[in-house]
Amino acid sequence: MELELFQKFGISLGLGLLVGLQRQHRGSQLAGIRTFPLITLLGSLSALLATAYGSWIVAAAFIGVAGMAVAGNLMHPKCESMDVGQTTETTMLLMFALGAYVMDGNGKIAVAVGATVAVLLHLKGTLHRFVDRIGEKEIRAIMQFAVISMVVLPILPDETFGPFDVLNPRNIWLMVVLIVGIGLLGYFAYKAFGGKAGTVLSGILGGLISSTATTVSYARRSKGGAGNTMLAALVIFIASTVALVRIVVEVALLAPGTVPQVLPPFGALFVLMLAVAGVAYFFNRKGRDRMPEQGNPAQLKTALVFGLVYAVVTLATAAAKEYLGREGLYIVGVISGLADVDAITLSTARLMNTGQVDVGNGWRVILVATLSNLVFKAALAGIIGNRSLFGRVAMLFGIVLAGGLLVLWWWPEDLRLFQGLMPDKANK
């Protein structure tokens, strides 16, 4: 018991020292490396005493810390050269509460919160510069994602309905949040580096945002005679390579138990695509291109469209499995891959995770959809772009299609990574 108390007081002391060090380094006149440890220890001691004498002790001590912050500001009035704000005062109250939480709460959570506070304080300049750089469009994107993830998602019912009992509004919208979140990360990366992005970085960012949108953007540029068509084809190809990684990440998030079987075939195809991209880049490494303007992936219309596509694909997958069996799933994979690989990937991953679809069939359905999507993007490049771009994209994607078909036909059923180390949950 005594050892546990010493450990908790030690955590409280350490968190106070960490935050106090940062405040002292920033030149805070109100509280520094000595005051913050005392505040967190006061919070811990107050919480300990409250178990014997009542919770009023914690409330009284909290009011006392708030009073000290007010008194400190009155004794050391801020001059014009000082940064006017309430950061240190707020941190004092927060660290007192954190010190109290350590005594009866989860020590790991307390450490995580304390470290987060210290990092936020330290990144003041970086965060301020980030806010200064972003414009109205970026703020709108953040707020739209907040609506999608924090307003719409919680109010949706978490129950299945409809044909085959597979349509769950909350699960459908959760997939929307996942895809929009990935796209938003790529969008902000584009805002940070897009203007200066070279060929490789343009492809990577395009794959994170949307490889199909990247194909359309560069195809339009080639139609207008802007830029090198081989570089445009390379960016489109790199974006599709990154999209392959994105598919594996989505499967790992929704069906982690299937990763040992899913990763090897997709890894083999990724290595092939990486090799092809490397060769193409070697012969065009001196070229430079500018990434076209990218759209906001967090628009509500975009989210609704993806949600509808995902729901349709989920329903079609269940129907195909019920009436057509294994062959029906491949038909759905081909058709849905023409529209959106993410939807069929997420839908199939869920079925693999629950054991409704065998993992060996599941990853093949996703791979069929991936190859179908490559054909669709090559067709887009030919329709929207010029002949030169279509020829180059068709050549690059043709190599991948040949490799993908070989993987589909010849890949051993029982080949998996870490065999025996990870349970095959999807088949249990």
Account of the protein in words:
By secondary structure, the chain is an all-alpha fold. Helix content is about 75%, strand content about 0%. It is built from 17 helices and no strands. The protein has helices spanning about 1-25, 35-55, 55-75, 85-105, 105-120, 125-135, 135-155, 170-195, 200-210, 210-225, 230-255, 260-280, 300-325, 325-340, 340-355, 360-385, 385-410. Helix 1 (about 1-25) packs antiparallel against helix 4, helix 8 (about 170-195) packs antiparallel against helix 9 (about 200-210) and helix 12 packs antiparallel against helix 17 (about 385-410). The longest helix is centred in the middle third of the chain and has 26 residues, at about 230-255. Mean pLDDT is about 85; it is low at about 80-85 and about 420-428.
Q: From the structure provided, what is the oligomeric state, counting identical versus distinct chains?
A: single chain
Q: End-to-end distance, in Å? A: 43 Å
Number of domains: 2
Query: Shape from CA axes?
Result: elongated
Give the percentage of residues in beta strands. Answer: under 5%
* Sequence stretches where pLDDT stays below 50 over 5 or more residues: 79-84, 418-428
Element-by-element helix/strand order: HHHHHHHHHHHHHHHHH
Count every helix, treating DSSP H or I runs of 4 or more residues as helices: 17
Class derived from helix and strand content: mainly alpha
Q: Count the strands?
A: 0
- What fraction, in percent, of the residue positions are helical? over 70%
Largest sheet: none
Q: Mind telling me the C-alpha Rg?
A: 27 Å
Mean pLDDT: 83
